[in-house]
Design brief:
This protein has helices at about 5-15, 20-25, 30-35, 40-60, 65-80, 105-125, 155-170, and strands spanning about 85, 95-100, 130, 140-145. It is mainly alpha-helical. α1 (about 5-15) crosses α6 and α4 (about 40-60) runs antiparallel to α5 (about 65-80). It binds zinc ion (ZN) (2 copies). One zinc ion binds near residues 138 and 154.
Length: about 170
């Protein structure tokens, strides 16, 4: 995984509704090697991490430099990288690096990956490109990589929902 993938993990975690282990597994759909091993203890460990990520992102949306730095550093201190070189698992002998001890519960690695990812995201994009979905009942954070920086919704789904609702209310009037 690279820094962009770690940032993606951070965003998915920040936006996840972590009520059940299944929600966590769904948020980690691109990382089955973590998702498959998650248990209740990982859910409990990652809820405060998700809250920390939301604080970083809320500060970024508000262009609060001091807040971003303080909140991101709190996450980095609490969930430091402890890289481990792996020679591969089972029959797949491909070299890779784990961001933390893979012998620990997956939450340890997920938290370190997310903290690193959000910090690298801030390094890469600054504070200009973070947003919060304008759909009333959503509030997901997103990264706006469009050239005109005009993104208002986290997803096409939210954009469509709002546009359909606006269209219906115009029809009523
Ligand atoms: Zn591995
Ligand atoms: Zn949304």
């Amino acid at each position: 995984m690279d820094n962009a993938a770690y940032l993606d993990v951070a965003l998915r975690l920040a936006n996840a509704d972590l009520a059940e282990v299944e929600d966590l597994r769904a948020a980690l759909y691109e990382e089955p090697w973590w998702a498959e091993r998650t248990e209740d203890r990982d859910l409990l460990a990652l809820r405060p991490v998700a809250e920390g990520l939301r604080r970083v992102l809320a500060a970024a949306v508000a262009a609060d430099r001091h807040g971003v730095q303080a909140e991101a550093n709190a996450l980095l201190s609490a969930h430091p990288l402890r890289p481990q070189l792996s020679s591969g698992h089972d029959e797949k002998q491909n070299w890779h690096v784990h961001v933390a001890d893979p012998g620990q519960p997956p939450a340890t690695e997920v938290a370190a990956a997310a903290a690193w990812g959000i910090a690298q995201g801030i390094v890469h994009y600054g504070l200009e490109r973070w947003g919060r979905c304008a759909a009333e009942d959503c509030g997901n954070f997103f990264l706006d990589t469009s050239t005109n920086r005009a993104k208002r919704f986290c997803s096409a789904r939210c954009a469509n929902r709002v546009h359909v609702a606006a269209f219906r209310s115009r029809q009523r009037d």
